[in-house]
TrEMBL record:
Signal peptide (residue range): 1-28
Listed SUPFAM superfamilies: Six-hairpin glycosidases (SSF48208)
Catalysed conversion reaction: Endohydrolysis of (1->4)-beta-D-glucosidic linkages in cellulose, lichenin and cereal beta-D-glucans
Source organism of the structure: Miscanthus lutarioriparius
Family as reported in the entry's similarity comment: Belongs to the glycosyl hydrolase 9 (cellulase E) family.
Annotated Glycoside hydrolase family domain residues: 34-498
Lineage: Eukaryota, Viridiplantae, Streptophyta, Embryophyta, Tracheophyta
Annotated protein name in UniProt: Endoglucanase
EC primary class: hydrolase
InterPro entries: 6-hairpin_glycosidase_sf (IPR008928), 6hp_glycosidase-like_sf (IPR012341), Glyco_hydro_9 (IPR001701), Glyco_hydro_9_Asp/Glu_AS (IPR033126)
Length: 507
């Protein structure tokens, strides 16, 4: 595995920048069993797979689905992941998911032990799809499959899909610098994951990243303004992209919402004309969230590694911005802008809040690693901050997710003594094809299963739901998608975070 300390790995990731038994899952040290949680967080991705499932598929209540995806455009877009509990495929969150899984493997793969093979398989399932999306039609990147409005009007298994599998793309005439930049990030990061294990595949990913980056920087625009089909209503690009002042431009390239993904990917592909441009990407915007839409905090943390570990003082402004992010999320920081529940969970949004918790926790553990290696400390005004400070906050947040909270409920399915039984997830809530071979229609799914008060018949092991509200309350209601739906971009950063914690707090 390539070391994430290499310039290529750092910049590639800067573009975007944890079984059926119901035991308590508390390790001997008194903390949750992070190794078990890690295995389950990775297994979740098998339940989200689209396409032809492999012979070693462990989540057996899922079957083949979406086997004609792409046919509407005469291309092959089979595979990839369903982002949450629906049956549409969205390129933007899938790219972020693949990037974060890759970063987790590169940064914390050494602590995953036997699970690193499964984590790489999760990366590859996403990367294979993105490679298809990026290379089948010159000058185009496919960014979605499935009419999202029609899909959301149905409650049916992926295996039974009969809604339109509309294909969406960005191109010169319908630009999408943001989604193209994030896709290039994912392809480039995945190429690092496989650089030692499969060099030919790694080279293909890197070549595709170059091509998508060209599209991102030559044809600029916010994808949700151009793609159509109301796809932007589901994953609108709120951050968009912004123009770098003329005096700072190199080769006419603009900054995207992925914090300079174009330049970073170009550097990673050994294009020396962008080296100087990297240092002109300083942005004074303060952020206190890290997500599929806004990657500034992640990019700053990653670039900080080179400033701290490698002593590259040209990147020191990014270190300062990364530390500003932590000052905005630390509970006791004088400059904190983050709300906490009485149970001490970060609360950033009423919709899928745990996605922001897992992504912040990943950054906390990753920066804590950098600080520990270099014995670095910093201050949030009067509050001194150490590696232990950041690690403690990440541990507290992950422990909350795993059941150390006022309700004593784990928000990871099939982990701990109590966990959500009625998650907002079509495949989980409907009987499997093996149990019910007959087709289940669009509205029949609502009438017979969605409105049922019973537990989901298929246990989606490892799925992390949206989580409790600002009062630590969780209704466990299938209809409450804001709190009960799991997503790939919630689990993806958790994988690396859990690996770090499993290696730090051993059973």
């Amino acid at each position: 595995m390539p070391s994430p300390s290499s310039p290529q790995a750092l910049v590639l990731l800067a573009v975007a920048v944890c079984f059926l038994a119901r035991s308590s899952h508390v390790a001997a040290g008194g903390h949750p069993d992070y190794a078990d949680a890690l295995a389950k967080a990775i297994l979740f991705f098998q339940g989200q797979r689209s396409g032809q499932l492999p012979p070693d598929q462990a989540v057996t209540w899922r079957s083949n689905s979406g086997l004609s995806d792409g046919s509407a455009a005469n291309v092959d877009l089979t595979g990839g992941y369903y982002d949450g509990g629906d049956n549409a495929k969205f390129g933007f969150p899938m790219a972020f998911t693949t990037t974060m899984l890759s970063w987790g493997v590169l940064e914390h793969g050494g602590k995953m032990k036997a699970r690193v093979h499964d984590a790489r398989a999760a990366v590859r399932w996403g990367a294979d799809y993105l490679l298809k999306a990026a290379t089948q039609t010159p000058g185009a990147l496919y960014v979605g499959v499935g009419d999202p409005d029609a899909d959301h009007r149905c409650w049916e298994r992926p295996e039974d899909m009969d809604t339109p599998r509309t294909v969406y793309a960005v191109s010169a005439s319908a630009p999408g610098s943001d989604v193209a930049g994030e896709t290039a990030a994912a392809l480039a990061a995945a190429s690092m994951v496989f650089r030692a294990a499969d060099r030919a595949y790694s080279r293909r990913l890197l070549a595709a990243a170059r091509g998508v980056m060209e599209l991102a920087v030559r044809h600029q625009g916010k994808y949700s303004d151009f793609v159509g089909g109301d796809i932007g209503a589901y994953y609108q690009s709120y951050s968009g992209y912004k123009v770098v002042p003329e005096s700072n431009r190199t080769s006419g390239i603009n900054q995207t919402s992925s914090c300079g993904v174009g330049v970073a990917a170009a550097w990673a592909t050994k294009n020396s004309s962008y080296l100087g441009y990297l240092y002109s990407l300083e942005d004074n915007d303060s952020v206190d969230m890290f997500s599929w839409d806004n990657k500034l905090a992640g990019a700053r943390v990653l670039l900080s590694r080179r400033a701290l570990v490698n002593g590259d003082k040209r990147l020191d402004p990014f270190r300062q911005q990364a530390e500003d992010f932590f000052c905005r999320i630390l509970r006791d920081s004088p400059s904190s802008t983050t709300q906490y529940t009485l149970g001490r969970l970060m609360h950033k949004s009423g919709y899928a809040n745990l996605q922001y918790v897992t992504s912040a926790s990943f950054l906390l553990t990753t920066y804590a690693k950098y600080m520990a290696v270099t014995k670095h400390t910093f201050s949030c005004q009067s509050l001194p901050v150490t590696a232990r400070s950041l690690r403690a906050l990440a541990k507290q947040q992950v422990d909350y997710i795993l059941g150390v909270n006022p309700k004593g409920m784990s928000y990871m399915v099939n982990f701990g003594a109590r966990w959500p039984q009625r998650i907002h997830h079509r495949a989980s809530s409907l009987p499997s094809v093996a149990a019910h071979p007959a087709h289940i229609g669009c509205q029949e799914g609502f009438q017979s299963y969605f409105y049922s008060s019973g537990a989901n018949p298929n246990v989606h092991t490892g799925a992390v739901v949206g989580g409790p509200d600002e009062h630590d309350e969780f209704p466990d209601d299938r209809a409450d998608y804001a709190r009960s739906e799991p997503t790939t971009y919630t689990n993806a950063p958790l994988v690396g975070c859990l690996a770090y914690l499993a290696g730090t707090y051993r059973s």
